């Protein structure tokens, strides 16, 4: 199973989302390039890069950073509230290998299908899960999980990222029940995010059919999880 270190960035610096905006992250001196280089040395083959500026402003403002990261011996999966196909194109042109279409896009099933048709394997469809619903962060409206899974399956999504929103950065463990439900229904490979903090969490995810990877942020940045050891254990 692949481990994708997550780097949330705002203004070109490591950050995390807070109630009033971006909160600086002290790990690696706040330098996402230094963090990326360290993860590459530790054996990472992918990085999950979240453009918080895009998530908040609607415009990608870290494309130059993506270009720099793409020069490293890792592949980039870009994220950050992406709903506009033009933003998918911008990240891919900047060097990202994949881009994550945000849950908000599920409001237009036809648009999701067109995006899948246009970008193919370079597109990941994101499902931000709270309980039995998919609820985009910052949006009060949502879809029942089963309804969202049906949209994804009908669109022919090549890959899905399921994020347990309430568990992000909480280190409390992944939402295994939701991951199992999504993996059983979507008919494609699944990545899991939210709450992953230990080898035990990773092993539990690896035991679920169709789960091919885990996005891990805080636990890796703070050194609670050793990337090299975890990758070797799951190889």
What is this structure's SSE topology?
Layout: E1 2-10, E2 13-18, E3 21-24, H1 32-41, E4 46-51, H2 52-57, H3 63-69, E5 75-82, H4 85-93, E6 98-101, H5 109-119, E7 123-130, E8 133-134, E9 143-144, H6 145-155, E10 160-164, H7 176-186, E11 190-193, H8 199-206, E12 211-216, H9 218-221, H10 227-234
Parallel strand pairs: 1-4, 1-12, 4-5, 5-6, 6-7, 7-10, 10-11, 11-12
Antiparallel strand pairs: 1-2, 2-3, 7-8, 8-9
Helix pairs in contact: 5-6, 6-7
CATH class: Alpha Beta
Q: Write down the CATH topology.
A: TIM Barrel
Number of strands: 12
Question: Which homologous superfamily in CATH is the superfamily?
Answer: Aldolase class I
Strand order across the biggest sheet?
A: 1-4-5-6-7-10-11-12
| Biggest sheet details | 8 strands, parallel, barrel
Number of helices: 10
Tell me roughly what share of residues is in helical segments. 25-40%
Q: Mean of the pLDDT scores?
A: 95
Spans where pLDDT lies below 50 across 5 or more residues: none
Strand content bin: 25-35%
Q: What's the SSE pattern?
A: EEEHEHHEHEHEEEHEHEHEHH
C-alpha geometry: globular
Number of domains: 1
Q: End-to-end distance, in Å?
A: 6 Å
User: From the coordinates shown, what is the CATH architecture?
Assistant: Alpha-Beta Barrel
User: What's the alpha carbon Rg, rounded to whole Å?
Assistant: 16 Å
SS-derived structural category: alpha/beta
């Amino acid at each position: 199973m692949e481990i994708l270190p997550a780097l949330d960035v705002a203004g070109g610096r490591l950050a995390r989302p807070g109630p009033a905006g971006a909160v600086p992250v002290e790990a690696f001196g706040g330098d996402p390039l230094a963090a990326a280089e360290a993860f590459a040395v530790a054996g990472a083959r992918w990085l999950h890069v979240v453009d918080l500026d895009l998530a908040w402003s609607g415009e990608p403002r870290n494309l130059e950073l993506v270009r720099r990261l793409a020069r490293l011996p890792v592949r980039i999966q870009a994220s950050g509230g992406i709903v506009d196909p033009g933003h998918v194109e911008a990240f891919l042109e900047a060097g990202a290998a994949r881009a994550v279409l945000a849950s908000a896009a599920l409001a237009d099933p036809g648009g999701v299908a067109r995006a899948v048709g246009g970008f193919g394997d370079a597109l990941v469809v994101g499902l931000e899960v709270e309980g039995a619903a998919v609820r985009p962060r910052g949006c009060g409206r949502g879809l029942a999980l089963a309804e969202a899974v049906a949209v994804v399956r009908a669109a022919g999504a090549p890959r899905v990222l399921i994020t347990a929103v309430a568990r992000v950065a909480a280190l409390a463990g992944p939402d295994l029940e939701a991951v199992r439900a999504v993996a059983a229904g979507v008919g494609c490979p699944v990545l899991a995010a939210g709450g992953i903090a230990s080898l035990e969490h990773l092993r539990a995810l690896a035991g679920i059919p169709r789960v091919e990877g885990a996005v891990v942020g805080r636990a890796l940045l703070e050194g609670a999880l050793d990337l090299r050891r975890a990758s070797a254990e799951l190889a």
